[in-house]
Amino acid sequence: MKRSTKTEKAHKKAKKAEEQTHRSKNSRKTLRLSFLGQAPPGLVKNFHHRITEEEEEEEHTMTSSSISSLRLLHKRKHVEFIKYSSLDTETIEYALTEHLRLSGMYWGLTAHKLLVMNKNNQEEEEDKEEVKEEEEIMSKEDVMKFINECYDEKSSLFAGAPGHDGHLLYTLSAIQIFVLYECVQEQLSKERAKKICKAISKLQSKEDGSFAGDEWGEVDTRFSYCAFSALSLLAHGMGEECFLDDGLEALKIGGSDDEKKEDNQDKNRSKALGIMRKIVDVDKGCEFIMKCRNFDGGFGSTPGGESHAGQIFVCVGALQICNQLDLLYTADDDEEEENDKLAWWLAERQVKVGGLNGRPEKLPDVCYSWWVLSSLAALKKKHWIDLDKLKAFILRCQDDISGGISDRPDDEPDVYHTFFGIAGLSLMKHEGLEEIDPIYALPVRSVRKIGIESDWY
Ligand SMILES: [Zn+2]
What pTM did the predictor assign? Predict the structure, then answer.
């Protein structure tokens, strides 16, 4: 089960040599769409530029080091794409994705904030008027009206769309949007906030600490993350006063009272964790997550489930929110290899073209830029992958004509991959983008407003 140090070293060496061998070939591939930034605007949606022979030839002579400087992030086009996607209710995609409309709104609005929040961008400086117009893709009033229509009185959770059943996934999306708009207390009465907390506590299993997503009981580590992230954002956003009086004490379902562990942590974080402990069993919740860890260092959706980058993000994020990331490591200093196993698994997700996949032997996909990179950021090992190559891959997945980012170059862009592509670039501190918090998946500036310092990485 455990790889020896020798094998590990040989593996690293072989990987490096292999990368060098493929460098010239890859640089050509990575540059495929590098010249499309100049294409005339206003062409029909989904038109795909085909690269000319001269362009192919020119690309061939370039080295990979020049890739990211050549390729531009089409900020304005992406803003337009997001706006268009939110308005275009006639498409089949819109009809098919109704159940997750609220999450779609979170992806679009967060991507938009990351694109426009940072005002120190040269492009924006030159064209302030236009940016101002674009600042809102939907009025705050409409956004809040929609979210409140998604609230399901029966479950005390938010649903993916009005009239649907409440679910943890959408409850987190709703709270994330409130944080994004700095209006948690404005939109949530104390009463509703406490009802949501109570509903979340009911979804935790008293036996093993796992969380179900809704009353139907499907268990998944994704829901552990949703529960902890939602509670943490609520605890920070609503303030201590909301949780001081009545009922909540009675909700306690066990767990450690030992608050000493948090003594050295930031005051706000300790308070929030204290509140969370009154609502759910934080320790048991983290124990369940650790049961989903595999021999390769990764995590699955349930105990014994295959390691997957998305599940790793939720497990690492949940542990981080609960201040229990140290559960990932053994105390023995000689166990370095064992302790780094998870980071190695994540770093090995980078394929030759620079993109990241979610599991071994799979194709790269822009959304994994987020799942993998944010996990590596939480482990403070972002530098274990080639960030320039990853940036170049994401930039290649842009639709240079109509904006938006797709899963892979030349595919149809969508709001989901547009968000994760921009989030990935933001995590790599791409110029002109607002920084994103790798744990809460919200702009650093937004979480700071409710007292969360993004000092994770
Ligand atoms: Zn994807």
Answer: 0.80
